[in-house]
Amino acid sequence: MPPRRVITGRSQEPRRRFAEELRLLRTARGESLRKLGEVLGWDWSLFGKMESGQTLGSPEVVQALDQHYGTPGLLLTLWELAVGDPSQFKEQYRRYMMLEAEAVSLWHYGVSRPPGLLQTAGYAREALAAGGIKGQELDQQVDARTGRRKLLEGDDAPPFRAILSEAVLRIPLRDAGEWREQLEYLAEVSERPNVTLHVLPFSAGPHGLASTDLMFLRLLDGRTVAYAENDVRGELIEESSRVERFHRTYDAVRDMALSSVESRKFILRMLEEVPCEPST
């Protein structure tokens, strides 16, 4: 088994570096992609796509590769760097993504979709595809979006509060199974100690965030920045007076929302309404 090797001098772009390391480790063992697939039990084409940078794969696949090559933790570390690499996102989101990764607490309001930090792979794929993204770019953005969920995991995960308009829970995915998985995930994360979810019911009436997805990030230096997004564009807001105005509006909307306990019950009721998949 090859020893864990220093990778200094190779590509400095995380996604490319990860793909390069996979290819070098495999060729050093003289294995074909087909042989690798047979040994590890995954379709060999998956490994080909990972080595060409078309997809990052799942953490389970990467851990299996680490074990196979005798490189404990190396590939998983590179995978995590690739998943969190802001260069995967379009230019307008890059600074926001970097700040998100540094935030010590986060607050969100969602108009019609769960926040990216709480989306399942199935939800992310359908939502991104609806925006016209397809092919390799779609695979990459799904990997990137679902990889962001790691930010809210672990003992040192930052506090996260989200207010979800009832519309978020009333607009299902086309695939009932994927929609069920998304609702189950929301119910699951609502029980984490660092996550607080509120549902804003339609009965709350008009409010100041009716057409705006909003995220606040509190940073290590004590500043709070906001990111506001609608169907046309997104804007990173750092001017303190504007951030404060948005924050007052957010607090007013939170006061109109259901408690975290009642919100979880609301999500579970929505889950009961999802049609059962036909038995095969």
Automatic annotation (TrEMBL):
Protein name: Transcriptional regulator
Taxonomy, superkingdom: Bacteria
Annotated InterPro entries: DUF5753, Lambda_DNA-bd_dom_sf
SUPFAM superfamilies the UniProt entry points to: lambda repressor-like DNA-binding domains
GO molecular function: DNA binding
Pfam family, one: DUF5753
Domain DUF5753 span(s) in chain numbering: 93-268
Species assigned in the record: Streptomyces colonosanans
